Amino acid sequence: MGKIKLYSFPLSPPGRTVQLTAKALGLELEFHSVSVLVKEHLTDEFIKMNPLHTIPVIDVDGFVLYDSHAIAVYLISKYSPGNPLYPSSDLEQQARINAILHFESGVMFARLRYVGDAIQKASQPGQVPQDRVEYALQAVDQLEALLRDGPYLVGDHVTLADLSCVTSFSFLDVMLPVERAKYPKVYGWYERMKQIQGYDEINQKAVDQLSGVI
What we know:
The chain is α+β, with helices and mostly antiparallel strands. It is 55% helix and 8% strand. The radius of gyration is 17 Å and the shape is globular.
């Protein structure tokens, strides 16, 4: 098996999705830190790999791929086809997972960035305009609705949909004044996700780091 190089940053939710996926598959990643804080993703060397200059990026024996969802699907399909995280033989299940992946990138992560930008520009730590808070909280409302029929986002077990959403939600939970009592399904799911393999070392560590600076 070729060496899998991951170019990412520990605080990147999409990067952590790839790490959680690899951990679930028993894959070893050679981690290369690319700090967006000092604009390492804008170097000529990195842009040659990814013209969109986003993280994460993987390099597997010269095959370079970016976008966390594309990477996670590739890793599952290549190294563990049929894995229930993203089952190759069940197109309906794949379609449901894909729908949630689009929700995560188009809604949850997008609104996380919207709030994050406001925090960076705020004159006081943690100060976010109320309209941005309310807009971001709509994503949590939608997540609660998506969990109405079961313990996980697609069916009764963890899938790639859950791995992707938990990395973004865990940061929203730090950044926003979320009323836990209002979202019982979300927080029940969140507690279950904290039990998955590699959660503490990959995701909780990043959550703790973010909590220390907000």
